[in-house]
Structures are given as structure tokens and as C-alpha cells.
């Protein structure tokens, strides 16, 4: 009988990716606290260098708060086309070592190197080679976590940041998880971590001590996941064909808005952005969601699932406006709006007839 080897999975995560690209391209920024984003009352930090993180500056932090924490903070406007170009270089490095690559974002991915292309004997050496290639070709550092499942690999990639790597072997996985705070677990967000704390669950050992029935009572459908990861179990495979589940766009206004026509204009602009993506990818969803963030940072969403996929521009615009109008007039100023399409599905033959005709198709 052939025994399958334990999987060898690497989670590669670039170090402060956006900010590191800016420091690489502008030597004057090296060693300085840098925030990628826009300064001012309406700005939000998209990414922060490690020098800025020492002051408590992090992504999604309002720019005014970031400047208060770090008076010497240097703001650099984002250059997403540059980050995308560098990301393609990084993924080209990955593809030299394996075909099993599951991107999570521009700057991180899972790699299954159980059978690596170059014949390196261990995942540890493979991760070192990948990180060395990335540094040589981009001038940027990456950290890596190595383990026998995705859950452990992702946690491990944070363990030696920046510019390091850490391995969790099969004989240490369960005991290692027990020592960690549950707030570090992938799939346990701040709200869930706070709930777990109220229940007396603060570490992996605390989580492992709970029965599956207890977890089901308090966490519903997530109970099996929490029960498994407390025991260092994760059977998910690295999926290079993972389907994108949603497409969204959002904008922060220059000032808080209460005028309905201005708010609607912002939502329609976001709907247009999302439709452009759907049209290019020929990916259409049934669920439309509108996100609203008020001046006091309270956030609400309104969603509606259509009986069939949204297959034309006007249909998406109308759905977004209808959802927005369900919360108008605004009781307080609105600082941000967003539109997302999700629940992607194959269009039926009748729905396909409604799809737009592209110039490329006509030329063919």
C-alpha cells in the first residue's frame, strides 16, 4: 500500500508590502515611519511601514489618528499599478517551485510544495529559496510559515516577521496551538475573540477544552472549524482555482454628506466600478450589497438577493439605489459608501441573451 506523505504547505507573506515598495523606490523614505494613504480628516491608512507600526499606526486607521500617534509620519499616495506589477513578479517566482498556488491578495499566498518542481528535499529549504529569489528580483523581503496544513502555515508566517520563516512540524502542531492566544487564529476576528474571552476562552488550550456541543451552542456553524483548529486540524487543500466570491468598490467622500443626490451619485459611481469588473470578467452575481459608514464611523450594510444573476448595468445601478434609499434620508452625515456584488453563479441561457455585446466579439 502506498502511503501518502504529509502535505508540505508554505504561506508566504510579504513584509509591509505597499510601504516597503515605496521605501524601495524612494531611498529618502528608508528607515522612516511611512503610511501609504492620504493625510487629512478624510484619509485612511492603507498600509504602514514597520517604523510606523512601532507607534501603533496600522492599516484602516484614520489618518488623523495615525498622525496623532506618530507626528513624524510621512504619507505617500498609493500606486496600485506598481504594487500589482511587483505582485506579478512575486507570483512568477512561486510558479517556478509549484503549480499549486492559492493567492490570497497581492502580497500573500499559500503554496503546496509536497512535490516541488526543483526537487528540494524539504519545505524549509524551498521557502528559503523562494524568499531569496523574491529579494533578489524585487528588493523586497518576505516571511514564510511552513507546516502540514494551511491554518498552521498562516499563523507560522507571522512568527518570525519581518524577513524570517518558521516551521510547525506534525509532532509539535497540537501542543503549539495550545500556547497561542485565540485572537491570533485565522477565522477568529476581534468580535469573536471578545466573545470567546467572555466565555473564558483566551488560548488554544482553553478552546480545546470545550466540547463540540458547547461550541455549537455559542458559535453555530463555525463550531466545527474552531473545534478542529484547536486540535491543529485543517483539511483544506491549496486551491489554485479558487473562485472569487465577490467584487466591490467603495469611496470616502471629501466631506460628510447629507444631501441625497450627492450620496446617490457616489453609490452609482461605485456601482459603475463594480459593473466594469463584472463585464470584463464575465462574472455575474445574484446579491447586491450597499455599505454605508457614517461620520461617527458607525457602519451598516443593506443586501438583497435577486431571483437571477444581475446581467446588465442598469439592473445593478437600480438595485444599489433601492438599497441606499432604504436608509435615506440620512440621520447623520455619511463619510463612505460602497457597493458589492456577490453570490456569483452561471447565467442561464435566457440571462445570457441579456448580456452586453462586446466590440471584440463583434470584430471576431
Automatic annotation (TrEMBL):
Listed EC numbers: 2.7.7.7
Catalytic activity: DNA(n) + a 2'-deoxyribonucleoside 5'-triphosphate = DNA(n+1) + diphosphate
All copies of domain UmuC, residue ranges: 9-189
GO cellular component, one term: cytosol
Sites where the protein binds Mg(2+): 13, 107
GO biological process, one term: DNA-templated DNA replication
Principal cellular location given in the protein's record: cytoplasm
Cofactor(s) annotated in UniProt: Mg(2+)
GO molecular function: damaged DNA binding; DNA-directed DNA polymerase activity; magnesium ion binding
Keyword Lipid biosynthesis (UniProt): no
InterPro entries for the chain: DNA/RNA_pol_sf (IPR043502), DNA_pol_Y-fam_lit_finger_sf (IPR036775), DNA_pol_Y-fam_little_finger (IPR017961), DNA_polymerase-Y (IPR050116), DNApol_IV (IPR022880), Rev_trsase/Diguanyl_cyclase (IPR043128), UmuC (IPR001126)
Annotated site (Substrate discrimination): 18
Cofactor annotation remark: Binds 2 magnesium ions per subunit.
Active-site residue list: 108
Keywords for this protein: Cytoplasm, DNA damage, DNA repair, DNA replication, DNA-binding, DNA-directed DNA polymerase, Magnesium, Metal-binding, Mutator protein, Nucleotidyltransferase, Transferase
Subcellular location(s) per record: Cytoplasm
Highest taxon of source: Bacteria
Function per UniProt: Poorly processive, error-prone DNA polymerase involved in untargeted mutagenesis. Copies undamaged DNA at stalled replication forks, which arise in vivo from mismatched or misaligned primer ends. These misaligned primers can be extended by PolIV. Exhibits no 3'-5' exonuclease (proofreading) activity. May be involved in translesional synthesis, in conjunction with the beta clamp from PolIII.
Subunit structure comment from the entry: Monomer.
Protein name per the record: DNA polymerase IV
Source organism per UniProt: Sphingomonas aurantiaca
Species lineage: Bacteria, Pseudomonadati, Pseudomonadota, Alphaproteobacteria, Sphingomonadales
Gene it is expressed from: dinB
Amino acid at each position: 500500500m502506498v502511503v501518502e506523505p504529509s502535505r508540505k504547505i508554505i504561506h508566504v507573506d510579504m513584509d509591509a508590502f505597499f510601504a516597503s515598495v515605496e521605501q524601495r523606490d524612494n531611498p529618502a523614505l528608508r528607515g522612516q515611519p511611512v503610511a501609504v494613504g492620504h493625510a487629512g480628516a478624510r484619509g485612511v491608512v492603507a498600509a504602514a511601514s514597520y517604523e510606523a507600526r512601532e507607534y501603533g499606526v496600522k492599516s484602516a486607521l484614520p489618518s488623523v489618528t495615525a498622525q496623532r500617534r506618530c507626528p513624524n509620519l510621512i504619507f505617500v499616495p498609493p500606486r496600485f499599478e506598481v504594487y500589482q506589477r511587483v505582485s506579478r513578479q512575486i507570483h512568477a517566482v512561486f510558479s517556478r517551485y509549484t503549480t499549486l498556488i492559492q493567492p490570497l491578495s497581492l502580497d500573500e499566498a499559500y503554496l503546496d510544495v509536497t512535490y516541488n518542481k526543483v526537487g528540494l528535499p524539504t519545505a524549509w529549504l524551498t521557502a528559503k529559496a523562494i524568499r531569496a529569489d523574491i529579494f533578489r528580483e524585487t528588493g523586497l523581503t518576505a516571511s514564510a510559515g511552513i507546516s502540514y496544513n494551511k491554518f498552521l502555515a498562516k499563523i507560522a508566517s507571522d512568527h518570525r516577521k519581518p524577513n524570517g520563516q518558521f516551521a510547525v512540524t506534525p509532532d509539535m502542531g497540537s501542543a503549539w496551538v495550545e500556547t497561542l492566544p485565540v485572537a491570533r487564529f485565522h477565522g477568529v476576528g476581534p468580535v469573536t475573540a471578545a466573545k470567546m474571552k467572555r466565555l473564558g476562552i483566551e488560548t488554544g488550550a482553553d478552546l480545546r477544552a470545550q466540547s463540540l456541543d458547547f461550541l455549537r451552542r455559542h458559535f453555530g456553524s463555525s463550531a466545527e472549524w474552531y473545534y478542529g483548529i484547536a486540535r491543529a486540524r485543517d483539511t483544506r487543500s491549496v486551491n489554485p482555482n479558487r473562485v472569487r466570491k465577490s467584487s466591490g468598490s467603495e469611496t470616502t467622500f471629501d466631506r460628510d454628506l447629507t444631501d441625497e443626490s450627492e450620496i446617490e451619485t457616489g453609490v452609482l459611481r461605485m456601482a459603475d466600478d463594480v459593473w466594469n469588473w463584472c463585464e470584463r470578467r464575465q462574472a455575474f452575481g445574484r446579491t447586491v450589497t450597499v455599505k454605508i459608514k457614517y461620520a461617527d464611523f458607525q457602519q451598516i450594510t443593506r443586501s438583497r438577493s435577486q431571483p437571477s444573476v444581475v446581467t446588465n448595468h442598469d439592473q445593478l445601478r437600480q438595485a444599489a439605489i433601492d438599497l441606499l434609499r432604504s436608509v435615506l434620508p440620512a440621520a447623520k452625515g455619511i463619510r463612505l459608501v460602497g457597493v458589492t456584488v456577490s453570490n456569483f453563479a452561471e447565467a442561464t441561457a435566457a440571462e445570457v441573451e441579456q448580456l452586453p455585446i462586446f466590440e471584440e466579439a463583434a470584430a471576431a
